[in-house]
Write a structure and sequence with these properties.
single chain; alpha/beta; UDP N-Acetylglucosamine Acyltransferase, domain 1; 2 domains; five-stranded parallel sheet; five-stranded mixed sheet; 4 helices
Length: 185
């Protein structure tokens, strides 16, 4: 959660470093995909900062400005990542539909591809989705809470996750099952 200016700078820097852009100015001038996702994440991070720090009138006005900018970007790009849901180093390598709901808490250095949905099994229940650090969510994956996903997990393309996943697992299928465990030797 971003509470101070130093937190804000650290989150933006971590997000930028995960993209590994060699020529960020050129990407901005040519409307490159990474430049667009970087600007989306930067707006999201600033919105998070001002949402968590509505101390005075200026902060409240800046919150309103970034909220409107965030909503415009959500509608324009089809990416709906709610504030205060993802840790530093979030990587969105491609533009496309992504919905990470307010009940989600993601760890650091996670990668999310397009066509991913984080939602509820049942709309009438309150649930949470917790995702550990260094997770990779492939294209078309659906994660339905309540569920807890461990660290270093890879979720395969088109998988539907409805149950908890242990650390270092690779999962796939409908419903998602553990295919193998990663070995770090």
């Amino acid at each position: 959660m971003i509470k101070s200016k130093s937190d804000l700078k650290a989150y933006i820097k971590a997000d930028f470093e995960r993209q590994q852009m060699k020529h960020p100015i050129w990407a901005s001038l040519t409307y490159g995909e990474h430049a667009v996702t970087r600007k989306y994440l930067e707006t999201l991070r600033k919105l998070e900062f001002y949402q968590n720090n509505k101390k005075n009138l200026i902060c409240k006005l800046l919150y309103a400005f970034y909220f409107l900018k965030y909503r415009k970007n959500c509608l324009k790009y089809g990416m709906y990542i709610f504030p205060n849901t993802s840790g530093p180093g979030l990587l969105l390598p491609h533009l496309g539909f992504v919905r990470i709901g307010p009940q989600t808490k993601m760890g650091a250095n996670c990668t999310v591809l397009p066509m991913v949905l984080f939602g509820k099994k049942n709309p009438e229940i309150d649930c949470s989705i917790t995702i550990g650090d260094n997770c990779y969510v492939s294209t078309g994956a659906t994660i339905l809470g309540p569920v807890k996903i461990g660290n270093n997990v890879t979720i395969g393309a088109g998988a539907v996750v409805t149950k908890d996943i242990p650390d270092n697992a690779v999962v796939g299928g409908v419903p998602a099952k553990v295919i193998k465990f990663k070995s770090f030797t």
